[in-house]
Hints:
The chain is mainly alpha-helical. Helices cover 59% and strands 0% of the residues. The chain has 2 domains: 1-82, Orthogonal Bundle (Tetracycline Repressor, domain 2); 86-218, Tetracycline Repressor, domain 2 (Orthogonal Bundle). The chain is elongated and about 55 Å long.
Amino acid sequence: MDASTTAEAADDPGEVPPKRTRRRGPELIEAIHEAAIVEAAENGLHRLSMEGIARRAGTAKTSLYRRWAGPADILLEAMYHHFPQERPAPGADDLRGDLIESLVMLAELSDDPLGRAMFAVIAESVREPKLHERFTREVFEPRGGRFTRTVLAHYADRGRIDPSRVTDVTVDIGEAMVLKYAVDHRRTPGRDHLARIVDEVILPAVGAGPEPPRTDDRTR
C-alpha cells in the first residue's frame, strides 16, 4: 500500500495513530503536499520531518515512506505541483498588464505558505546546497523560473520585443525589486508600486519604453 491508499493507523509502536479518514488517491496526496508546505513554512527545513507531515496530513508515517524517501522529496514534489505560473495574454498584446500581473503573483506568493517554504529552501542554500540545486532543477526551472521571464519570453517569441533584451539581468529586475521592497518595508509592495517597477524599470530595460498608467491600474 502506498500513499495513494486510504490513510491508515500507524504501525510504528512509537507513532501516534492519526485520525482515520476515507481520503485516498489524489485527495490524500494533496493533503500530504499541503502538510509538507505548511510544515516547512512554519518550522523551517531543519525541523521538517516525516512525523510532522504525517501528523498534519492525518495519515501514517509508514505510508509516506512507501512513496517518498524523506521529507525533502515530499516538499519538492509539493512545491512543483503548487508553484504558480503566469499565463500571458495569448495574443501578446498587453505586455505592461502581463508584467504587472506576474509581479502581483510573486507578491502574493511571498505572503503564502508556499512562498515561505520556498524562502526556507533558499535560506538554507549554504548548509543544504544539494537541496537548493534540486529545488532549482525540479521546481524552479520546470515551472518557468522567474515570473517575468515567462512574460518576456512569450512576447519575445512573438516578435513584440527584441529577444536580445531578454537577458539574465532584465528577467531578474522585477523579482529583485519586489524582494528588496519586502526587506526594506517588511511587507510586500502593493499594486501601484508594482506598476511603477514595470513602467519605470522593466519596460525601458527591454526597449518597450514607459507606458502611461491605465485607469484600472490607478484605481486598484
